[in-house]
Amino acid sequence: MSSKKRDFRDESEMPLSAVAADDMRWNKTGSWRNIKPFYDPKTSPCIASCPAGENIQGYIELAREQRYEEAARLIWQNNPFPAICGRVCYHPCMDGCARGSLDRSVFIPAIERYLGDYAIEHGLREKRPEKTLDDKVAVIGGGPAGLSCAFFLAKKGFRVTVFEAKPLMGGVLRYGIPEYRLPKTVLDAELKRIEDLGVEFRPDSIVGKDVTLEELGQYSAYFVGIGLQTSRRLGIENENSKGVMAGLEFLEKINTGEPVEVGKCVVVVGGGNTAMDVARSSLRQGAHVTVVYRRTRDEMPAIEDEVHEANEEGVHFRFLSTPVGVIAKNGRITEIRCQEMELGEPDESGRRRPVPKEGAYFNMPADSLLVAIGEKPESKMFEAVCSISSGLIVTDEYGRTSNRKIFAGGDVVSGASTVVNAVARGRGAAEVIAAELSGKQFDPKKTKKVVAIADLNTAYFLQKDRAQMPRSDGARGRRPFAEVNMGLTCEQVQEEMSRCFSCGVCDGCDNCYVFCPDVAISRHDGTYTIDYDYCKGCLICVQECPRGILSTESEGK
Amino acid sequence: MQKVLEGNHAISWGAKASDVKVIAAYPITPQTQIVELLSEMCTSGELDAKFIKVESEHSAMAAVIGSAAAGVRSFTATSSHGLLLMHEMLHWAVGARLPIVLANVNRAVGPPWNIWTDQNDSLSQRDTGLLQIYCESNQEVFDTTLQAFKVAETVSLPAMLVLDAFFLSHTSEIVDVFGAETGKKYLPPFKPVDFLDPDNPKAFGNLTGPDYYYELRHKIHKDHLRAIDVARRADAEFGKIFGRSYGLVEEYRTEGAETILVTSGTITSTARVVIDERRERGEKLGLLKIRLFRPFPLEDVRRVLTRARKVLVIDRNIGFSIGGIFAQEIRSALWNTRVHVPLFSFIAGIGGRDVTPGVLNEILDIASAVEYPEQETYWIGVKDEELSYTGR
Q: A93: which of A46, A157, A312, B320 fits an S-S bond (Cβ 3.0–4.6 Å)?
């Protein structure tokens, strides 16, 4: 009964209700707008929280479509070690993950590990660069920083040689992290990928002995990523007794299969990852293990998962205590004298400072005391060529030292940090070295805006449990050094990836298109456009976008 | 097919027999069972309809406005505060001329919170333009659901069927029901006058100035008046097919009655018993049940009540200061007539208080004792000595 008429002389000619004689396109309601929505894809918070800047959302999206190879290769663009980092990283990505605001964050490292293992199982190799450049670059230190730097330089066509003091490459990945966390087969496979790129590995090469600074100076540039090598000492009475050992030394023995006797009763001092590795490795020698830490569990610098797993495996903790002396008999440790502590005012790290409790001492029996209270660098050999402060090489944020030809990164620059930090610094330095050697100004990539969790609309996501990582028998099993975390199955990984929101990345859900009350949004080939002739700026599209794609700008008069 | 159904489920069955295509609703006591059963029917597939969950009654009505505008038969149900929250959208459904059917379970309005029956929720919608039909039994509830669609779709206006909380909503009775196939004999598929059609885009509800708005409102008024006869025919046709009809109003034992009691809803059933008893004793009493409240069946009411010498109206509702709302309607219906009939207005049963035969006898006693009402409004059973009209 609608009528095309605009003028009615009699009520009977009129429709029942007001109906437009035509469409309403003449009514350009866009002129009412004072705020404008626009499509603005953003960086997912997981990516922003990854020190290596891995495109987590991107590889999850590929892997969801079972494009595992492409997914693995996408990780390599930022990190050559997905199988390693998927196992040992402290995964700040999970702290950033927006899903934590709905139920629990996505189990990102388990996905990364799956893709890393997929690449290994399928023998995927990084493509060699199309042309080789004349410039030769040296890398000092075959740990995560140096190897990452070598990998990214080699991808750009540089001829790279890595000098490593130890007989095998890997640094802390090989000599620090025990087999039950990172199997050597996995490490070797990821190292081989770098070697396959044409990187030359020179193990057993100590700077100043096997290779001189002069020789290094003949390279177009060199990168120093030697990490921290020397364990700090407690500085207490009888520390030189038999049975007292540095944490790193102990781990190196464990990791190279050298026999090591710790006895029945082991005390580990320290609260970091080395302390956890030492404690859990001692446990695997059949010992009763107690970790003595001067603060409480909340202040422990170790990765939360490591503390949790150590506790689960039966490591005991004695918090708010610190050793003050070793009691020895015939030059061999029998007991440790400890003092109780309490927490005082926060120190510069923000953690509450431990303060000794006067007169509160106790003794603990011990066959071994393993000291894991931190490590320090051995950087003396570079003193002559670049500036060093408190043993750490001084660089700018991109790894440039005071010497134009020398770059550095990882723990030798930052002090005790993480594998992923080393990987990130190694890659960052590679970018700078490549730019400078080709005579270009280094131009750091600009990153997109990061999605704020408040910009998401989590009402569109159902709660779903996180995948459970299957575990081996652990420390008390028949093969105590077998890998503890056994990895997710393909089905589990797919389930887990279905929990990813894809923050900041449009997946074509149509919400904006469906909800626009002015029909001002159109859709072509999976992309959307807003017709500003009609958009009134109600921002319902912004509100209803589950992923925070749309941003707004005011159009003040 | 006979089933033992509570009033709420009688409506669900009625909606199913009406072959509704979209249901949008939000739960509220004492209505919830209506949409609970409908959602189950949608899930099992026995009812081929889209059930839209919403976050409020305002949205429920907005959603069925959308679906009705898209040209499909649409249904919702609510009660009390839910209906009040719908209020704005009720005006919209009327102005947009959308034949939505809404079931409202009469429930008192808070504060204080009260889930029991009274009519203030539905009567507060008096001037929205919504058609309103008040039911007395679960069978009538089932039958009225289909009749409501028939009338609504004929005059392009939304309709509300109303039933008492608990006395009907949660009380089981034997109800003769049928499915959509049988329903089609009475209620053919909905043919919209105009509808949202992507192939033929139009805008609805556009800005309309004083030059035409007035006429559009006048057309609603005319269709309301037309709906009286439409409803009468719809009821008669239903009776012809299924053997049950109710009238727009129902006269009960009004032959020779000098006093006629006017009721609506379940009070009517109790009143039938009291009238029977007092008729036995020789009193000239009759009963008029108002079933159709909007449009108001003015002629029917006048025809019956101008024969009486006294009219007694019982209201389970209150228009504060002026009295019962049905009483006001009837008083005004009787004004432009040549006879003057005294009208006694009684308030009873608000907030779910029982209206027992005792209460009705008290009302009849008060009215028989005097020629003319001594008060404009009698509140029966108030806990106040001075208001005890019969001294009991």
A: A46
Given a contact cutoff of 8 angstroms between Cβ atoms, the answer to whether A316 and A291 are in contact is yes
How many C-beta atoms lie closer than 10 Å to residue B171's C-beta? 15
Is A76 strand, coil or helix?
helix
**Cβ pair B275, B253 in contact under 8 A:** yes
- Span A313-356, pLDDT tens digits: 999 999 999 999 999 999 999 999 999 999 999 888 888 899 99
Helix (H/G/I), strand (E/B), else coil: A406: strand
Q: Measure CA A458 to chain center.
A: 25
Q: Which amino acid is at A100?
A: G
pLDDT band at A4 (very low <50, low <70, confident <90, very high): low
pLDDT in tens, B280-305: 999 999 999 999 999 999 999 999 99
- List the single residue in A8, A11, A20 with the smallest CB-CB distance to B202: A20
Concatenated DSSP letters for A155-222?
A: HTT-EEEEE-SSSSS-THHHHTS-TTTS-HHHHHHHHHHHHHTTPEEE-S--BTTTB-HHHHHTSSEE
* Alpha carbons A83 and A186: distance in angstroms, whole number: 7
Instruction: Decide if B206 and A11 are in contact by the 8 Å CB cutoff.
Output: no
Residues near B206 by beta carbon (within 8 Å), at least 6 away in sequence: A18, A19, A20, A24
CA distances, A199 to each of A100, A184, A196, A208, A428 (Å): 41, 20, 7, 22, 18
Q: Are B382 and B196 a contacting pair, CB within 8 Å?
A: no
**Cβ-contact B56, B85 below 8 angstroms:** yes
Q: Is the pLDDT of residue B364 over 60?
A: yes
In whole angstroms, give the CA distance from residue A550 to residue A542: 5
Encode A431-458 in three state secondary structure: HHHHHHHCCCCCCCCCCCCECCHHHCCH
CA distance B54 to B28: 12
- Per CB-CB distance under 8 Å, the chain A contacts of B224 are none
> Are the C-beta atoms of residues B22 and B152 closer than 8 Å to each other?
no
With vertex at residue B158, the alpha carbon angle to CA B102 and CA B238, rounded to the nearest 5 degrees, is 80
- Full strand arrangement of the beta sheet holding A265-269: A244-246, A368-371, A265-269, A288-292, A316-318
CB–CB of B119/B325 below 8 Å? yes
Contact A141, A113 (CB under 8 A): no
Contacts A11 to B, Cβ<8 Å = 215, 218-219
* pTM attached to this predicted model: 0.73
**What does the alpha-carbon distance between residue A124 and residue B387 come to, in Å, rounded to a whole number?**
95
The upper half-sphere exposure of residue B265, i.e. CA atoms within 13 Å in the direction of its Cβ, equals 33
In this complex, the residue of A8, A15, A23 whose CB is nearest that of residue B194 is A15
% of chain A surpassing 90 pLDDT: 85
**Cβ <8 Å between B96 and A23:** no
For residues A132-136, average pLDDT: 93
Q: Are A210 and A381 in contact (CB under 8 A)?
A: no
User: How many Cα neighbours within 13 Å face the side chain of B179?
Assistant: 5
Q: Measured between CB atoms, does B96 come within 8 Å of chain A?
A: yes
Place of tokens 């053919």: B188
Among candidate residues A184, A187, A64, A113, the one with its CA nearest the CA of residue A485: A113
Query: For A62-113, how does the pLDDT look when each residue is reduced to its tens digit (9 = 90+)?
Result: 999 999 999 999 999 999 999 999 999 999 999 999 999 999 999 999 999 9
